[in-house]
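Re-running Transcriptional regulator, HxlR family to confirm reproducibility after the cluster update. Everything else is unchanged from the original entry.
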Amino acid sequence: MLKDKVDKFKNGELSCEVELALHIIGGKWKPIILWRLKDNSTLRYGELKKTIKNITPKMLTEQLR
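Result of re-run:
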């Protein structure tokens, strides 16, 4: 998935590095996960899950990969 986004940048489909970064960290859950990790980067999976309401275990796992 990340490779596809980088390939789009290399092919000129994305106009700048900022647009590439927004594609990589975009979505519903990644900004929330990053916000939770910013103060405490050593949260375990279960601790992180408790801090994010309405996220399924499957979605959290996918977003952390």
